[in-house]
Amino acid sequence: MCSQHAPTTERLSGAVIATACDLRVASESAKIAFLFVRVGLSGADMGASWLLPRLVGLGTATELLMTGEFIDAKRAHEIGLYQRVVPGDGVVAEARELAEKLARGPAEALHVTKHALEAEWSMDLDQALAHESEVQARLMEHPNFREAYEAFVAKREPKFR
User: CB neighbours of 141 closer than 8 A, spacing ≥ 6?
Assistant: First the structure.
Protein backbone atom coordinates (compact mmCIF):
# COMPACT_ATOMS: atom_id res chain seq x y z
CA MET A 1 0.00 0.00 0.00
CA CYS A 2 1.37 3.43 -0.93
CA SER A 3 0.49 6.85 0.37
CA GLN A 4 2.20 10.15 1.05
CA HIS A 5 2.97 8.96 4.57
CA ALA A 6 4.28 5.50 3.65
CA PRO A 7 7.32 5.79 1.38
CA THR A 8 7.38 3.25 -1.42
CA THR A 9 10.39 1.12 -2.22
CA GLU A 10 10.92 3.24 -5.33
CA ARG A 11 10.95 6.44 -3.29
CA LEU A 12 13.39 4.92 -0.81
CA SER A 13 15.76 3.55 -3.42
CA GLY A 14 15.65 6.21 -6.15
CA ALA A 15 18.42 8.34 -4.68
CA VAL A 16 20.73 5.35 -4.32
CA ILE A 17 20.01 4.25 -7.88
CA ALA A 18 20.96 7.76 -9.03
CA THR A 19 24.31 7.52 -7.21
CA ALA A 20 25.08 4.34 -9.15
CA CYS A 21 24.79 6.22 -12.46
CA ASP A 22 27.91 7.53 -14.18
CA LEU A 23 26.37 10.98 -14.71
CA ARG A 24 23.27 12.63 -13.30
CA VAL A 25 21.15 15.29 -15.01
CA ALA A 26 18.34 16.82 -12.97
CA SER A 27 15.54 19.31 -13.32
CA GLU A 28 16.07 22.50 -11.35
CA SER A 29 12.90 21.64 -9.43
CA ALA A 30 14.22 18.19 -8.39
CA LYS A 31 14.68 17.23 -4.77
CA ILE A 32 16.58 14.20 -3.54
CA ALA A 33 16.88 12.41 -0.21
CA PHE A 34 18.28 9.16 1.13
CA LEU A 35 15.17 8.22 3.09
CA PHE A 36 16.00 4.83 4.66
CA VAL A 37 16.81 6.26 8.08
CA ARG A 38 13.47 8.13 8.15
CA VAL A 39 11.62 4.82 8.17
CA GLY A 40 13.82 3.20 10.81
CA LEU A 41 16.26 1.51 8.45
CA SER A 42 19.98 2.07 8.07
CA GLY A 43 20.95 4.84 5.68
CA ALA A 44 23.67 2.45 4.54
CA ASP A 45 21.61 0.32 2.18
CA MET A 46 21.89 -0.72 -1.47
CA GLY A 47 25.49 0.51 -1.60
CA ALA A 48 24.69 4.05 -0.47
CA SER A 49 27.48 4.16 2.10
CA TRP A 50 29.99 3.08 -0.56
CA LEU A 51 28.70 5.14 -3.50
CA LEU A 52 27.69 8.44 -1.91
CA PRO A 53 30.99 9.34 -0.14
CA ARG A 54 32.80 8.86 -3.45
CA LEU A 55 30.55 11.48 -5.02
CA VAL A 56 30.13 14.07 -2.29
CA GLY A 57 32.73 13.31 0.38
CA LEU A 58 32.40 11.50 3.69
CA GLY A 59 31.06 14.39 5.77
CA THR A 60 28.30 15.33 3.34
CA ALA A 61 27.41 11.67 2.75
CA THR A 62 27.20 11.14 6.50
CA GLU A 63 24.81 14.05 6.86
CA LEU A 64 22.60 12.94 3.96
CA LEU A 65 22.44 9.30 5.08
CA MET A 66 21.91 10.05 8.78
CA THR A 67 19.29 12.79 8.44
CA GLY A 68 17.32 11.60 5.42
CA GLU A 69 16.65 15.25 4.64
CA PHE A 70 15.77 16.42 1.16
CA ILE A 71 18.12 18.74 -0.70
CA ASP A 72 17.22 20.74 -3.77
CA ALA A 73 18.84 20.42 -7.18
CA LYS A 74 21.01 23.49 -6.66
CA ARG A 75 22.54 22.04 -3.49
CA ALA A 76 22.92 18.59 -5.06
CA HIS A 77 24.82 20.21 -7.93
CA GLU A 78 27.02 22.21 -5.54
CA ILE A 79 28.10 19.07 -3.66
CA GLY A 80 28.74 17.09 -6.84
CA LEU A 81 25.76 14.77 -6.72
CA TYR A 82 24.34 16.17 -9.97
CA GLN A 83 26.58 17.10 -12.89
CA ARG A 84 23.94 19.17 -14.67
CA VAL A 85 20.81 21.00 -13.55
CA VAL A 86 18.49 22.33 -16.23
CA PRO A 87 14.99 23.80 -16.48
CA GLY A 88 12.36 21.09 -15.99
CA ASP A 89 11.12 21.10 -19.56
CA GLY A 90 14.66 20.53 -20.85
CA VAL A 91 15.89 17.72 -18.60
CA VAL A 92 15.04 14.85 -20.95
CA ALA A 93 16.54 16.65 -23.95
CA GLU A 94 19.71 17.46 -21.97
CA ALA A 95 20.10 13.88 -20.78
CA ARG A 96 19.48 12.56 -24.30
CA GLU A 97 22.00 14.98 -25.79
CA LEU A 98 24.64 13.91 -23.28
CA ALA A 99 23.90 10.21 -23.90
CA GLU A 100 24.10 10.70 -27.67
CA LYS A 101 27.40 12.56 -27.33
CA LEU A 102 28.85 9.68 -25.33
CA ALA A 103 27.42 7.15 -27.80
CA ARG A 104 29.25 8.91 -30.65
CA GLY A 105 32.49 8.80 -28.69
CA PRO A 106 35.26 6.21 -28.72
CA ALA A 107 33.60 3.28 -26.93
CA GLU A 108 36.83 1.53 -25.96
CA ALA A 109 38.35 4.71 -24.53
CA LEU A 110 35.17 5.41 -22.54
CA HIS A 111 35.18 1.83 -21.24
CA VAL A 112 38.82 2.09 -20.18
CA THR A 113 38.18 5.48 -18.53
CA LYS A 114 35.27 4.12 -16.51
CA HIS A 115 37.31 1.10 -15.47
CA ALA A 116 40.22 3.36 -14.43
CA LEU A 117 37.94 5.56 -12.35
CA GLU A 118 36.74 2.49 -10.48
CA ALA A 119 40.03 0.56 -10.24
CA GLU A 120 42.30 3.45 -9.33
CA TRP A 121 40.16 4.44 -6.36
CA SER A 122 42.02 1.87 -4.27
CA MET A 123 45.48 2.41 -5.82
CA ASP A 124 48.24 4.71 -4.72
CA LEU A 125 49.47 7.34 -7.21
CA ASP A 126 52.37 5.24 -8.52
CA GLN A 127 50.05 2.29 -9.20
CA ALA A 128 47.52 4.57 -10.89
CA LEU A 129 50.19 6.14 -13.12
CA ALA A 130 51.45 2.70 -14.13
CA HIS A 131 47.92 1.52 -14.87
CA GLU A 132 47.16 4.61 -16.96
CA SER A 133 50.42 4.28 -18.87
CA GLU A 134 49.61 0.68 -19.74
CA VAL A 135 46.06 1.38 -20.94
CA GLN A 136 47.08 4.49 -22.90
CA ALA A 137 49.73 2.49 -24.76
CA ARG A 138 47.10 -0.11 -25.60
CA LEU A 139 44.60 2.53 -26.76
CA MET A 140 47.23 4.12 -29.02
CA GLU A 141 47.06 0.92 -31.05
CA HIS A 142 43.25 1.03 -31.33
CA PRO A 143 41.75 2.20 -34.65
CA ASN A 144 39.89 5.00 -32.85
CA PHE A 145 43.17 6.72 -31.99
CA ARG A 146 44.20 6.73 -35.68
CA GLU A 147 40.73 8.01 -36.62
CA ALA A 148 40.97 10.82 -34.06
CA TYR A 149 44.37 11.84 -35.41
CA GLU A 150 43.21 11.77 -39.04
CA ALA A 151 40.08 13.74 -38.16
CA PHE A 152 42.18 16.34 -36.33
CA VAL A 153 44.51 16.78 -39.31
CA ALA A 154 41.55 16.99 -41.70
CA LYS A 155 39.73 19.39 -39.34
CA ARG A 156 36.63 17.17 -39.20
CA GLU A 157 34.71 15.32 -36.51
CA PRO A 158 36.01 11.79 -35.90
CA LYS A 159 33.80 8.80 -36.68
CA PHE A 160 34.53 6.31 -33.92
CA ARG A 161 33.72 2.63 -33.85
Answer: none
